[in-house]
Each structure stands twice: as C-alpha cells, then as structure tokens.
Amino acid sequence: MKQLLTSFLCVLCCGFAAATGVYNVRDYGAKGDGRTLDSPAINAAIEAAEKAGGGQVLLPAGTYLSGSIRLKSNIDLHLAAGSTILAAADKDFRGKDIPGGRLYDESESFGGFPEYQDGGHTYFHNSLIWAEGQTNVSITGHGMIDGKGLTKKDTESGGKVQGGSIGTGDKAIALKQCRQVTIRDVTIYRGGHFAIIMTGCDLSTIDNVTIDTNRDGFDIDCCKYMTITNCKINTPRDDALVLKASYALKKAVSCEHIAISNCNITGYKLGTLLDGTYQPEPVGWVCGRFKLGTESNGGYRNISLTNCTFAYSSGLAFEEVDQGRMENIVVSNITMSHVHHYPIYITTGCRNRGPKEVTQPSSARDIQISNVIADDCDSLCSIIVTGMKDEPVRNVWLQNIRLYFKGGGTKDLADKDYREQGTNYPEPKFAGWTPAYGLYARHVEGLHVNDVTFRYERPDYRPAVLLDDVHGATLRAIDAPTETGVEKVVTRRSGQITVY
Fold first, then answer.
1. Which residue has the higher pLDDT, 339 or 97?
2. For the purposes of burial, counting CB atoms within 10 Å of the CB of 210, is it exposed (0-12), middle (13-18) or buried (19 or more)?
3. DSSP 8-state secondary structure symbol assigned to residue 314
4. Which residues are 44's β-sheet partners?
5. Under 8 Å CB-to-CB from 188, ≥6 apart: which residues?
C-alpha cells in the first residue's frame, strides 16, 4: 500500500510539474541537507523537463551537495533565494559509495593533436555545471554556487590552486557551443579554475552576477553577440573578466560583438567581497583586471567596455600574441583605485601558440580609450602601447585620462632597453619599469593623445612620455610635471610627431 501511495504521489507531482513547467528537485529525491549527494536528483529533474520540452528546474532553499550537473536545451536552472549548490569533494565520501561511481563527469576526448591552450580551456565535462551544444539554457535566481570541492587543494587554506585539472571537477560553470544563454542574479563563491567559462557561445546575456573566487572570474572564449552587465567580480589571485580567442574549437574563431557595462572589478581577499570586510589582497601574479588574451588565435573585434569601476586591481590589458587581429575596441568611463602594475596596457607579440602553417603576424588597430580616472597607480608601468617592429600597432586614441602614480622612478630608466615583446609571455611585470612614467609607446603608427593628466606622489625622474619608433602621433594638452632637467616628451626613431 505504501509503495502504491508513493508511486501515486510521484505520478501526481510529475504531472503537476509537466502542467506548470516547474520541476522541483525535491520531487526527484534531492534532500538539500548539505550531506546527501543531490546531483543525481537534479539531473533527473533536468531530464524530465527536457523530455517534456523544457521548463524551470527549481532548487528551493537548502544546500545541495553536487557533482556534475548537465544542463540541457530549454532548461532554466533556478536557484531560489537561500539555496546553495555546494561542489562535492572526494573527502565528503570517504568510506561511502558514490552514486554512479564518480562525482564529476569524465573529461571528454579532445583529439590527437597538441592542444594550443591550457587544460582549463580544453575540457568542460569535468565541471560542476556544464552544457555542450545546447540552446536556450539559463542559470538564474538569487541562490549561490559554492565551488568548495572543485580543486584538489582546500581553497580556504591559501594553498596553491590546481586549476586546469583534467581529472576532477575544476570549473563552476562551463558552457561550450551553446546558443541563447542567460546567467542572471546568481552568486558564485570559490569557482575553481574558472567561475564561468563560455567557449563558442552566441547570443548570450549575463546580468547581475556576483563572483568572489580563487582563480579567474569569467572567461569568454570565441563567443559572439554577448552582453555582460551589472556584475561584481572579485578575483584576488587571477583575472576577473577575460576575453579570449583560443584554439579550443580546433580552429581560429574570433571573439566579437561583446558589450560590457556597469561592472565592478576588485582584488580583495577571497570571500571578503561577499562578507563585506573588503580586505585588499597583497599584490602577487595579478589581481583582478579586465583583459583580452592571452589565448588569441582568432582575434577580437567590436568590443566595448563602459561605466566600470576597479579597486585594488590591475587595470586594462589588451594582448594579441597568437596571430589574430585585435580591432575596433572602445573603452570609456572607467574609474580605478589602487592600481597594481599598470593602468592601461596594449600590446602585440609573436608567441604564436597555434598551428605552424599560420603565417600572418598578430596585429592591432583602431583602439579608443577615453574618460579614465585612476589613483594610487603602481609606478612600475606607465600606459604601455607596444607593437612589433614589422607590424606596428595602428590607430590608438587616448583621450580625457587622469592618472595619479606613486612615483619614484630613477633617471637611468629613461635609457633602459625595454624588453621587446617577441615570444615572451605578455606580462609587464616581467619587463620591469617602463622608461616613461606616464606613457610609453613603441612600434606604433597613428597615436592620438588628447587632454591627458599625469601626476606622481614622489619625485620621478623619467620623462612623462617616451615615444620610440612611433610615427604619425598627435599629443595635445598633456598636463604632466617633470623634475628639473627632465624633458616632458622624449622621441626616438620617430617621425611626424606633433605636440600642442
């Protein structure tokens, strides 16, 4: 009789779900107690919704210990307020049987040729929430995704995070070749190698997402037609918001038509954005920042970033080093406080991490940056704009920019043989102090600087601007102090330079 009643209730609940389009994971066996592995039940609800043509898979308040969750077409995975998807770890199941034999799905096969990108960009199925080749998928709601168990090291211990693992779950959300994706309102804490990675996804909307994580926040790779708005991203040990154009799709695919606005990027200690204590992280490899690169086989086109704030973070980095084209980039209305390493960095190089038969050089052109204010900037690096000797960066506009540096540069730095990018990893930290404290440009054709103010706290004996192999430059209204005997603008091997 009890079994018959249970079957009747199951049929009744499933019929109700089909009628309303809402599939409550509790009806499929999820406990939400933080101890029971609930991913099998969550996946059962997703499969039921998919079979019915789609719907909302609802996680009510509770903590759902989970391994891999497989999103399908026409599914909205909805995390209600008070709900948490908690990434399971092997230690949670010591001495216990794991349903299905493993917590996270096995990494997919990539193919028989050498990968031209890191493992984190190559494998997706070994993630907490993943989808490949699906349409109209969404993750919504005011709940949380906690990736505590995504990496082999305890992310709370300060130990080195083993990102890029191909054997265990290492990404909170991983979406590949999906269309019409929406991620809205959720919070991601301790997201593993990537809190969110989207590769080859088109027609996507990311809105009001909060990320406080141990590695990269949000990587957008080979994607088109995407808007990212109103997000808060805290990444004390890696990049915050990154556009890439890797070889993960086994061909060069551009990242283009991406519009980003009204976002906050920070480099506070892990968890202190969420708990409201906002403790700055000591500067290490990198802290926060918005970046294009480094994986850049397919290039970048038609990218806009506007109305964003940065705090205790590196600044803006635009890096094309893998034989792609970077063009039509517009950045405006940016404020930064306590800038690590550099405020603005534009470069090309010849790392050329890709098929050897590709012979075109990396290139960059038509980049416009305006209305930027930054204080407490590390004096290691000025604004940097560097191309290659045989392939200069072309047409860069810098307008209405105010930068306040710490100062302290010595006079000998002006004569420094600054490292050519070449095949080096494009990180200014490794090249050391720039020869100018405000703007250093080399191998550039068409540089237009207007209404720019530089200041420093301590005396700095470098010139404000140094142009090396720059042709066709216009400098207008450069307000920048220099120490006695130091020229404001220095040019070398350059031509057609006009200073107003």
1. 339
2. buried
3. -
4. none
5. 144, 145, 147, 172, 173, 195, 196, 209, 210, 211, 212, 213
Q: Cβ(132)–Cβ(70) under 8 Å?
A: no
Residues with Cβ within 8 Å of 100's Cβ and at least 6 positions away in sequence, in order, are: 40, 67
C-alpha–C-alpha distance, residues 500 and 493, integer Å: 20
Q: Does 159 score more than 70 pLDDT? A: no
As a whole number of angstroms, the distance between CA 380 and CA 406 comes to: 9
Strand pairing category for 489-492 and 495-499: unpaired
| Residues written for the chain | 500
Burial class (CB in 10 A: 0-12, 13-18, 19+), 371: middle
Instruction: Please tell me the distance from the alpha carbon of residue 76 to that of residue 185, in angstroms, as a whole number.
Output: 13
Task: Please give the torsion angle defined by the CA atoms of residues 63, 64, 69 and 73, in that order, rounded to the nearest 10 degrees.
Answer: -70
Q: Which residue has the tokens 């996946």?
A: 43
Element (H or E) spanning 294, and its range? Answer: strand 290-296
Tokens describing residue 182: 């929406």
CA distance 428 to 88: 38
For the chain, the first-to-last Cα distance in angstroms comes to: 92
pLDDT in tens, 253-291: 999 999 999 999 999 999 999 999 999 998 776 788 999
Residue pair 233/262 in contact by the 8 Å Cβ criterion: no
Lowest mean pLDDT among 25-29, 100-104, 337-341, 448-452: 100-104
Query: Nearest-CA neighbor of 120 among 182, 70, 69, 169?
Result: 169
pLDDT tens-digit readout, 308-342? 999 999 999 999 999 999 999 999 999 999 999 99
Calculate helix-pair angle for 39-51, 2-20, nearest 10 degrees.
60
